[in-house]
Amino acid sequence: MEIKINDRIAHVEMISREEDRVILSIDGRKYEADIVMVENGVYSLILDNKSHNIELIELENKKYLVNTYSKSYNIDIIDAETKYLMSRRKDDALEETVISSPMPGKVVKIMVNEGDEVKAGDTVIVVSAMKMESEYKVKTDRTIKSIKVREGQTVNSHQPLIVIE
Amino acid sequence: MEIKINDRIAHVEMISREEDRVILSIDGRKYEADIVMVENGVYSLILDNKSHNIELIELENKKYLVNTYSKSYNIDIIDAETKYLMSRRKDDALEETVISSPMPGKVVKIMVNEGDEVKAGDTVIVVSAMKMESEYKVKTDRTIKSIKVREGQTVNSHQPLIVIE
Amino acid sequence: MIKKVLVANRGEIAVRVMRSCREMGIISVAVYSEADRRAMHVRYADEAYFIGPSPSSESYLNTDKIIHAAKKSGADAIHPGYGFLSENAAFAGRCLEEGIVFIGPSPEAIRSMGDKITSRRLMTEAGIPVVPGTEKINSEKLALEKAREIGCPVMVKASAGGGGKGMRLVKNEKDIVGAVRSARSEAREAFGDDSIYIEKYIESPHHIEFQVLGDQHGNIIHLFERECSVQRRHQKIVEETPSPVMTQKVREEMGSFAVAAARAVNYAGAGTVEFIVDDHLNYYFLEMNTRLQVEHPITERVVGVDLVKQQIRIANGETLDIRQDELLQFGHAIECRIYAEDPEQNFMPSPGVIRHITEPLGLGVRHDGYVYEGYEIPLFYDPMMSKLIVWAGTRKEAIARLRRALYSYKITGVKTNIRFLERIMECPDFVNGQYNTHFVDKNIDFLLFPEKHDEKIEDVAIIAAFIDYATKIKKREDKIFSKNGKSNWKDCGRRISFMRY
Amino acid sequence: MIKKVLVANRGEIAVRVMRSCREMGIISVAVYSEADRRAMHVRYADEAYFIGPSPSSESYLNTDKIIHAAKKSGADAIHPGYGFLSENAAFAGRCLEEGIVFIGPSPEAIRSMGDKITSRRLMTEAGIPVVPGTEKINSEKLALEKAREIGCPVMVKASAGGGGKGMRLVKNEKDIVGAVRSARSEAREAFGDDSIYIEKYIESPHHIEFQVLGDQHGNIIHLFERECSVQRRHQKIVEETPSPVMTQKVREEMGSFAVAAARAVNYAGAGTVEFIVDDHLNYYFLEMNTRLQVEHPITERVVGVDLVKQQIRIANGETLDIRQDELLQFGHAIECRIYAEDPEQNFMPSPGVIRHITEPLGLGVRHDGYVYEGYEIPLFYDPMMSKLIVWAGTRKEAIARLRRALYSYKITGVKTNIRFLERIMECPDFVNGQYNTHFVDKNIDFLLFPEKHDEKIEDVAIIAAFIDYATKIKKREDKIFSKNGKSNWKDCGRRISFMRY
Q1: Which residues of chain A make contact with D72, given a CB cutoff of 8 A?
Q2: CB spacing of A26 vs C459 below 8 angstroms
């Protein structure tokens, strides 16, 4: 099975599992670990007698945000089902793009109208959250396909704000 | 509906409920409260502008341990279903009694054998937990019907240890 | 005597004020907006009053609603915390009119110190050094004269200015005329007013402030300094006391000036006199904050005084029970502010639901927070979640302790600046006590990009995610199994457990 | 130099030791039993080694397994914490043999102080007051003579005794012969040995102890006293420093004796000299604990010294960096121990799964714990979950602060003694500082039965339970509804929300 961690794709195989003791290989390296979930979403992992605490947040099915002591990782589990879905999705890619805010906020200003042609670097929308305004720009020349929100509206994180093509 | 709190039976009626705002009556007293679950099992209740934090532990269906700031209460919800079951159970009551430990522990010693006749005040079993031994006695003259555990065994809280009749 | 205090604030400071109230046997009253029904200050308070919609302007900044709640609850005093109405002279005056004690200085003191020009004049009159500078200037000749007087480098600033517009840094006298000319033209363009003024430019400024306490009977003391130069975008993020650059002589001088500054406005209450200090320990009055500061706990820790209790006692009309010569700085304290923000995305706020918290504990650690597991940080207010304050006998040990505390401090669900703060504690400039307000900019690469790519740690992350996934798959399978009555998982588990010995 | 420390312990003390290791840049190694895989010390440590089954005798008390783990991990030192192997001279000796630093005193010091008779003799030789008493006595005549010498009241105790058997309190001289006779007969019956000894009976005993630190170069200091008289079943539950009954003169005397006691056994490390003190401040050496005490944090707080770091430095062979005359007691600290137990059921331990914790925070509060939400307190070890330590400028304020902290300290899932501790803080005898080791027995009614029946609070509990029940019923109904596609709950919710303004 494959697991994507940031930009790396690792090959992972379970060799054995007996209760908390697991043996597995990652990209050919063999690991023998003792792993238990100690709190909701928090694992204690003892590997070569080193003690690790790892926090897992399941963002969506098979997608995790994983915090080790020093760093956060985005991890995707790529099992057979995911692979199949990925192969099907490929054709649709890049057809349209959605601008969204990574965090919830309030739409301060919409700088464009539907149908507008915008240049690379143009700001299309300004969203504020917690005393700070963020400007969202397009990276290449595009056309505004549709505007999904109105000024003053409260929006969730990752909610589509503007669709460009 | 009736709610049993320790030894008191209170009559409770919901008058209205709109989101977090509830109006209800308890033994004829009318309460208008703002109540929300803030954490898993923890309620914040504002009643006449007094702020209360109440922790609920559901021991089993319709049975709660409720902690207010100053005190713990055992609360049973007595709805129609419960009443029906209670009326049915009445006949079976007092037929046999189970001796159990309120906390998990280890059986140190069993002082009786099945079939033994014991006198009021006799110790039948000793259970230890966390450096402390507790002796369990019978309150009236009884006969040992069956012994469910053996010496040295680890037992859970409320697990039947000895059945007497 | 104050018996019931309404806290006109939210977040950690509201809880912190209520804690001291509780210790004094005073009933605490919370007010809350729509977004804050579940907030900790509402849960912690004895009483709670709803005051309106989430935006501060319709709730925490709404004087009428707060006064109304105070009246309804029978509170005899209002503590404003910091921010919101804490430096609002009109609100302080309104409390007076309504017969409610405002736990803070007089409206006059707030007003005088709130106005840059008035406070500068008052301080100059009281003999307190201010940043050398001029009044409005309209002639290039006068500008040149004044710049010579002050000595370069100087800043030319537009009187009507803001946002850096009409501002020029002049390092050599010969550039002054050109700078004045272009600043005026830019100011005219931007603000329709081309008057400018000149101020000495402090090259490596430290932000050092002194805590003061004054009672209503004219007694004023200072509780030493706080070094607040670790800032990003003019926002303090780490504060410490004593300041690593301070000397005993300068401390005493600045302390006396801080007391004099407070005296100049008949200050009663807790306040902070801010100075700008250069590398040679030349210091200039900057402003006075007429309220409790976010960073007050480091003073509390090193001096051993509960500042909120002192505020309440002073508001009660009591005489200060601490004498200046009794005070000493015992050991070293550092505070850092924990924000829900993403340092890697230009410190963008990261509101959301707190999934899991592990709070740092133990020797020398104070933690003033208000978020809890399951709590959703609202969009409407400041993203600061908590303050971590450590104390130790020495600065070196305090830094080690803060690193230890940050190491075990975990908040998931939102992004935080915890790792960024750890990097500050590892940064040589900070460790050596050699920093000024340019610290973050100067060290930003060190602070932001600490990690080497470590495949071993990646593998650890992979193991955890993989096991979580595999466990879920297994559970799903077991469910199907057990429905067919064929599961022998338990037996298997027992056997393995047995085999471990 | 010590670079890696194995902590041969569990629970809060293991975590506490590791925290100081982390601050010193020392790698920490945990050992754990079967029951402790999920314990906090395993999670907090840098490394973790499994050492065997849950019973202590097969894990934490098993010298071989611990030494083996130390060797395997490459630890150069072992910290024993308190309890378990901390006062085991053989274990300390074994570490020496294996070339591992034992962070504690020499085996000889442990052995001397561990034996009542040896330590009593050594102390007497060093001129330290011990409880007046006799050696073994086999004649009634001698007993009478000695009892006269000591002065009534006296205790007659069986030499081989234990559990109160063969013990007699004698208040009047005339009763001495009868008491000796019956004690001997009872002792013969119980232990097959009828020798007895006589000791002065201290009527209102205070348990006061002094913290000492000695290095390997003969420097020994004391860090003042701790008052530990609040006990139940000889188990301390609340400790404070300074002691409310202490005077400066007696403090200095006792401190000198504590140092002398340590010097008598060439003590190196942190240790505690326990005294029994009567109401007139007559004091007698009781015993020396040759390890860190549970209650060490109150000393740390008031004196400003990290005792674990000092232990490690001393074990490193460093010279003490603190001089006696530099030390002072700054303010007042109180510790209370939080147990998983049921005060209303004769303090029966209450193990179980921790459902929910709200930790007290803020000014002057230190919290040393190890349990977390979802953690199951094992059956095999001590039921102490944490220690709450508060500091304030005065004793009165410290009590108020501890009450405040206990108020907001919540642990559900297991029963705790938190309310019991709050009652101690409200109890007049404690508040007035007028208590001795009889405190809990004397005030048990006050401590155990605080609540008046309050129907209003019952109603609050009823509301919460009722709403929880009703919400569950509603959810079940909604589920059925929504399956039929008929739910209009959301619209309804919106309408009501709108109507709130």
Answers
A1: 49
A2: yes
> In C378-454, where does DSSP find H-type helix?
395-407, 418-426, 428-431, 439-442, 444-448
Same CATH fold, C203-330 and C4-103? Answer: no
pLDDT per residue as tens digits for the range B38-74: 998 899 999 999 999 999 988 888 899 998 887 889 9
Residue C270 to residue C293: CA distance in whole angstroms: 9
pLDDT of amino acid D450: 60
Chain B residues in contact with C371 by the CB 8 A cut-off are none
Confidence of residue D260 (pLDDT cuts 50, 70, 90): very high
Q: Report CB contact under 8 Å: D392, C306.
A: yes
Indicate the helix (H) or strand (E) that contains C466: helix C455-483
Q: Does domain B2-78 have CATH number 3.30.700.30?
A: yes
Lowest pLDDT segment from C35-44, C118-127, D162-171: D162-171
Q: From 1.10.1040.10, 3.10.129.10, 2.40.50.100, 3.40.50.620, which CATH number describes the B90-164 domain?
A: 2.40.50.100
Provide the 3-class DSSP secondary structure of residue D6: strand
B2-78 and B90-164 share one fold: no
Of B33, B69, B73, the CB nearest to D458: B73
Chain A, 82 to 121: residues with Cβ < 8 Å from chain C are 102-106
* CATH tag, D4-103: 3.40.50.20
Q: How far is C97 from chain B (nearest CA, A)?
A: 25
CB contact under 8 A, C37 and B20: yes
Domain boundaries, chain A: 2-78, 90-164
- Give all chains having 3 or more CB-to-CB distances under 8 Å with chain A: C, D
pLDDT value at residue A98? 85
Q: Where are the domains of chain D?
A: 4-103, 132-200, 203-330, 334-448, 457-500
Sort out which chain B residues have CB atoms less than 8 A from C46's CB and list them.
50-51
Q: Which residues of D carry out catalysis?
A: 291
Q: Do D367 and C358 touch (CB under 8 A)?
A: no
Q: May I ask the CATH architecture of the domain C132-200?
A: 2-Layer Sandwich (3.30)
- The answer, for B36 touching chain C at a CB cutoff of 8 Å, is yes
Q: Which is the catalytic residue, given C111, C291, C337, C395?
A: C291
Cis bond before residue D153 (omega within 30° of 0): yes
Strand bridging mode C384-392 / C365-369: antiparallel
* Whether A103 and C350 lie within 8 Å, measured CB to CB: yes
- Beta pairing partners, C220: C214
pLDDT at residue D325, as a whole number: 96
- The shortest C-alpha distance from C72 to chain B (Å) reads 10
Note whether D419 contacts B5, CB cutoff 8 Å: no
pLDDT, tens only, A29-56: 999 999 999 998 899 999 999 999 999 9
List alpha helices for D139-192, DSSP H: 140-150, 176-191
Tokens of A50: 């080193």
- D203-330: CATH superfamily: ATP-grasp fold, B domain (3.30.470.20)
Q: What is the DSSP string of D435-457?
A: --TTHHHHTHHHHH--PPP-HHH
CA distance B79 to chain D (A): 10
Residue found by looking up tokens 């750890």 in the block? C422
pLDDT tens-digit map of B64-114: 999 888 788 999 999 888 777 777 665 554 446 888 887 778 898 899 999
Q: What class is the D334-448 domain?
A: alpha beta
User: Model ipTM?
Assistant: 0.84
CB D412 within 8 A of CB C398: no
Whether B104 sits inside 8 A of D458 (CB atoms) is no
Tokens of A136: 């969202």
Closest to C426 (Cα-Cα) out of C440, C446, C408, C444: C446
A38–D contact, CB cutoff 8 A: yes
